[in-house]
Amino acid sequence: MIPLKVTQPSYSTPIVVIGLIVVNILVFLHEFWLQLADPYALSHFMMVYSLRPAYFHFVNVFTSMFVHATWLHVLGNMLFLWVFGDNVEDILGHAKFLAFYVLCGTAAAMAQVLMDPYSRVPMVGASGAIAGVMGGYLIKFPRSRVLMLFFLLFIFTFELPAWVMLIYWFALQLFGGFGAITEAAQGGVAFFAHVGGFITGVILINVMGARERYWRRRDLYW
C-alpha cells in the first residue's frame, strides 16, 4: 500500500519539505552520475557519507540522511515526506520543522546504532527522519484521511483514517525489527531507525509547540 495524499489541508507553502526533496534528489543524481562514471567512486562515496555503526562518526548521522541506495528508495522516501510533511511543517513553522526533521533523523540513526553497534553495513536514507514526521502527524492529525494506492492482481485506491495507517506502519516496523534480531539479519531495512524516529516525532511534536496561527485555527484540525 502506498499513500498518495491526505485530506488535511495545509495553509502555507512547505518550503522546507520542498527543499529537502530537492536536495535528496540532487544527491541521488550525483550518485547516479558516479555509478555511470566509475562504480568504485560510488562505493567510496557511500563509505564516506553513509553511517556504519562499527566505524561511527557523528557527522555521518547527518550526511547519511541525504544518501539513498536506489531510485525506488529515494522516490519512496520523498513521496512519504511530501504526503505527511507539509501539514507538520505548517503547524511547526519552517525553522522548527527543519530542526524537528534533523532531530528525528538523528534519534533514528542512534536507535539503529544502539541496536547493532558492531554492524559494518552502511546505513543510508531519510526514512528515519520521515518516520519522525509520520509520528508527529499521528499526534496532530489522527482524524485526517489518507488516500492509499493498493495493487496486487489489480490496482485500486481507498481511504484510511491517518491513525489506522500510521499505527499499522509503525507495528510493521516494530515487528520487523524484532524479527531481524531473531534472524540475525545483516543489511536490509533499518527497522529500529524507523521505530526510533517515529517515537521521537511523537514526543517532539508537542515539546516543540505549534506556531501561534495554528492555535487560532486548531478547531479546523480536530
- CATH class, please? Mainly Alpha
Q: Would you report the number of β strands?
A: 3
How many helix segments?
9
- Stretches with pLDDT under 50, minimum 5 residues: 182-186
Your description of this structure?
The chain is mainly α and 222 residues long. Helix 1 packs across helix 2 (39-49) and helix 7 (162-182) crosses helix 8 (191-208). 64% of the residues lie in helices and 9% in strands. Mean pLDDT is 89; it is low at 182-186. The protein has a single domain (2-220), classed as Rhomboid-like fold (Up-down Bundle).
Outline the fold blueprint:
Layout: E1 2-6, H1 15-37, H2 39-49, H3 58-63, H4 71-92, H5 94-115, H6 127-140, E2 145-151, E3 155-161, H7 162-182, H8 191-208, H9 212-216
Antiparallel strand pairs: 1-2, 2-3
